[in-house]
Amino acid sequence: MMRSLLTIILIFCAITIGNAQSPKISFKDINYSNWPLLDGNLWVRNPDGLKNKNVYFVENGTKIKVDFTDKFVNSDSAAKNKAVIFILLFNPNDPRQFKWHQGVLKAAIEKTDFKSGDQYTVFFFNNQRNGKFLYPLSWKFTDNKEELIRMIDDLAPTRNDYVGNLSTECNFLQRHLIRHAAGDAMDILIKEVSDSFARGVFILADDKFCSAVPESEDTYTKAQNNNIANYAITYDKSGASDFIKGFCNSTYGEYYKEKYNNAGDAAKKLIEFLSNFNQRHAGVVYKASYNTSIENKDGAPKSIKIESEESNAEFILDVPNKSFFEQIQASILWILLVLVSLIFFIYIFKSNNKKKQEQINQVKKENEIAIREIEQKRQQEEIESKRREQEIKNNVENKLNEQENLRKQEEAKRKQAEDEIKRQKNSAETNDILIAQMRERGNMAWLEYSGPNGSGRIDIDVPEITFGRDKKQVDYALDHATVSRQHIKIYYSDYKYFIMDLGSSNGTFLNGFKISKSQLNHGDLINIGEITINFYI
Questions:
Q1: How far is CA 65 from CA 33, 48, 57, 169, in A?
Q2: What are the two backbone dihedrals, phi and then psi, of residue 386, each rounded to the nearest 5 degrees?
Q3: What are the pLDDT digits (tens) for 351-377?
Q4: Distance between CA 255 and CA 241 in Å, rounded?
Q5: Three-state secondary structure readout of 5-71
Q6: Please, which of 181, 213, 225, 412 could form a disulfide with 176 given CB 3.0 to 4.6 Å?
Q7: How far apart are CA 526 and CA 518, in angstroms?
């Protein structure tokens, strides 16, 4: 009863501390079987692991160094869902930058896998207006990709959304727009989303906007206390500071500056950030162990402090009770009495039963020998009988199988001949129908080709024609090393012409785009290797 009460009190204290600040380090999954050597998982919130390997547990004022592996593994306690707010900087003096970030975000979302239950929303920010940094004022979370893309497209800030002179507002009133916008986004996550989600803010801005304003500890503290990671994709701008980078790193997020302002590369990096978000948010674990200084196994839980350069924290050590044998060791006299009594009992028992047991064993041995001989003889006779039966059965089955195989072979030959006759008949009928359809258009389609080895015209007067380098494998050979043995097929179906790549090495390009299959239209330009083909109807 007292132990349960103490455990509840310690857990309550740990929760109270945890509400003030999310832990960054803990000792979990403790194995007590090798007491006083305890091993378990040293969990660290930083997804990049510990920079300094000096970690100590403090028990009753005694500091004990913790041994743990050099390499860490990802934590298996990643959150099921994520909640993410995207915030885009709108600089009225450079609206192209906003469009760049808007395009990067949209391209990344289109290729990101969405999971049911995830929460996403998006805002833009510039200067404070009516006490608000984030717009639009009407917003909602969604786990629907198409809806989020519409929300991104609907972001259309103008100069009317911008208030005051930027440099005066920032320097005089000590406002840092990026810091304030990120802080407001975190307030929304804290208020609207449970901390069971992996929560994060993704900043899309240049790193120059109001960079002269000093960093605020309040924003860092809010992110760290509520376990909210901040990520950033930044537009490279001369004179930019490292404010966003330092902010992201301190909240266990990631930072990427696109040096050449290549939207495609920035979108790929944002997709990577979103893909790894839940796992990074879960932290990492090291296999760790230490020798506890607690000698009395009284079954009472103990609160143990953790000291490290990463963070200080506490965990509950559930001290076990003494085992049955440990309790026996506490009374040597009782142990001696039990041993003497046991030895005496064994001596009396053996003395009275030794001779009788020998007689029983002898009779039992003789009976076992006789039974074994009878059983061996019976088994040999049974084996021989089964062998003869199986031999007869095998002979009969072999003959039946031979007859059945011959019958199946004859049946297969007959069916194959019938199928071939049907196939040839159906193929001829289908070709006649397709050729009739092709002629309904008036003139038949034709190709004009040119390449290093010459040029020419090819009339398409059959429903299907193949091209390649090997004249034995295709209908029309194009002799050039850049053409595959079987390169393309052009065929007619449902009143339309189509082109299909036949798994060529150098690919097939239609009007400049690589294709595997596509409809053909009058005037289309086809490239196979160094051969150029024009399609006409």
A1: 20, 21, 7, 51
A2: -65, -35
A3: 778 878 888 888 888 898 989 999 999
A4: 13
A5: HHHHHHHHHHHHHHHHCCCCEEEEEEECCCCCEEEEEEEECCCCCCCCCCCEEEECCEEEECEECCC
A6: 213
A7: 11
- How far CA 96 is from CA of 90, 110, 157, in Å, comes to 9, 21, 12
Best CA proximity match to 87, nearest among 226, 161, 184, 163: 184
Find the mean pLDDT for residues 460-473: 93
d(CA 104, CA 268): 9
User: What pLDDT does 176 receive?
Assistant: 54
What is the per-residue pLDDT for 217?
52
pLDDT of residue 207: 67
pLDDT of res. 173? 35
Please report the DSSP string for 340-363 in residue order.
Answer: HHHHHHHHHHHHHHHHHHHHHHHH
Would you state the structure tokens that stand for residue 264, as one six-digit string? 């495609």
CA dist 475 and 466 (Å) reads: 5
What is the pTM for the complete model shown?
A: 0.58
CB atoms within 10 A of CB 213: 19
Both tokens of 537, joined, read 């109807």
In b/e form, how buried is each residue of 448-480, taking b as 16+ CB within 10 angstroms?
ebebeeeeeebebeebebbbbbeeeebeebbee
Judged by DSSP in three states, 321 sits in: strand
